[in-house]
Amino acid sequence: MAALTEARTGQAPKFQRSLDDVDAARGRIAELLAKPLTADSAVELAFLNHRGLQASFSELGIAEAELVRAGRLRNPTLGFGRLRDGGGVVEIERSVLFDVLGLLTLPVASQVEQGRFEQAVLQAAHEAVGVASDTRKAYFAAVAARELVTYFRQVKEAAEASNELARRMAEAGNFNKLARMREQAFHADATLQLARAQHRAVAERERLTRLLGLSGEQVNLALPDRLPELPQAPAEPKDAEQTAMAQRLDVLMARRAAEHTAKTLGLTQATRFINVLELGYRNKTVTGESRSDGYVIELELPLFDFGATRAVRAEAVYMQAVHRTAQVAVDARSEVRECYSAYRTSYDLARHYRDEVVPLRKRISEENLLRYNGMLIGVFDLLADAREQVTSVTGYVEALRDFWVADTDLKTALTGRSPGAPITMRSSVSPAPVH
Predict the structure, then answer these.
(1) Which residue range(s) make up the domain with 229?
(2) CA-to-CA distance for 418 and 335, rounded, in angstroms?
(3) What are phi and psi of 285, to 5 degrees?
(4) Gap between the Cα atoms of 329 and 335, Å rounded
(5) What pLDDT, in 10s, does the model give residues 171-210?
(6) Residue 422 domain-assigned (yes or no)
(7) pTM of the prediction?
(8) Which secondary-structure segment (H or E) carries 418?
(9) How many separate helices (H) and strands (E) can be counted in the chain?
(10) What 8-state DSSP symbol labels residue 218?
C-alpha cells in the first residue's frame, strides 16, 4: 500500500498500528508545523494526522486476519451425550466431527481471500491518493486566498484614500456630486470585496485544517505568502490514456473485483450440491457392555434447494463486476482528456497573465506616474490606475491557483483515481459476494 501511494503522490503513508505509533508520529507533526508548509509537507502531515485515513488503513489488518483464517481448517466439533434409564444403565456417546468439505476447498478459499486482501491494499492506496489530492488542492486554495486578501486590502486602502480626497474636495467646492458618489460607491465595493476575501481565506484555511486533522493550537498554520511560480513549460504526458488504464487505482480495483468474483463463482459451483459435509469419529459406551467405536458422516441433502439460486446469483454478480469495470475504464479515459484540457488552458491563462497582462499594467502605471509628475493627469487618475494594476495581479493569482489545482487533478487522473470522486472511508471489510 505504501509503495502504491508513494509512486502516485511522492509520499509514503505509515499505518499507525498502535498507540506507540501515534505518539511517534506526533514528533514529526510538530516538526512540520514549526515551519511554513509546502504542498509536499502538507500531504505528509495529512498522512500522519488524518484519523479517517488511519482508520481506513486498519482495514488492511482485518483483511490480513481473514486471509490467515481462510488458510486454516475450521475447528472440529466435539459431541457428548449421556443417557440413563430407570434400571441404572448409563449410555454415553462421544463424537468428533471435522469439516471435510472445508479441507477440500481450502486452496480455493485461500485464493479468494488473497484476492480480497489485494483488493483491500488497492482500496487503502486509493483512499490515500484521494486525501493527498484533496490536501494539495486545499493547500493551493488556502495560499491563494491568503495572497488575495493582501491585494484586496491594497484596493481598499486606495479606495479609502480616493474617497477621503474626494470628500475634502467636495467640501471645498472643487468636486462635483456625481464624481463624489462614484468614489463613495467604489469605496463601498472595495470594503465588500475585502470582507468576502477575508472570509474566503478563513474558509479555505479551515478546509485545509480538516484535511490535515488539526485541532486546538495546531490550527495556527504557517502558510507561505505566495503560490509557487509557474513552471517554465507545461507537462506533455505521453500515452496518457494507456497510462491510466495500466496504473489508475480505480481501474485496477475494478479489474481485481471482476477476477475475485470469477474465483468466487468457481467456488460456488464446486459447492452448490454439497453444502455441508462433515466426517468424524464416534464411540459409545453402555454400563456393563464393551465400548462401541465407529464413524459419523453429516451431509446436507439438496431436497429443496439444489444450489441453483446461488449459482445464478454468482453469475449475475460477475456480470455486474464486468460491466462496472468497463464503465470505470470509459470514465478514466474521458477524465484524463478533460483534465489535460483544463491543465493546458489554465497554464496558458496563467502564462498570459504573467508575461502580458501584469507587465503591461506595470508599464501603464509607470507611464501614468510620469504623467502625474508632469501634471498631465490628476490624482484620481493615478489612484484609478493603481486599482486596475492590483486587479490584474489578483487575476494572475487566481489563474496561478487554478493551474496548480489542474496540475493536481491531471496527476491524480493519470495514475490515482477520479479527481472528482469523494473520499469514502469504509467502516469494515465487505463480505464476500457469494459463497
Answers:
(1) 2-72+105-272+307-415
(2) 7
(3) -125, 140
(4) 10
(5) 777 777 777 787 788 888 889 989 999 999 999 999 999 9
(6) no
(7) 0.76
(8) none
(9) 12, 4
(10) G
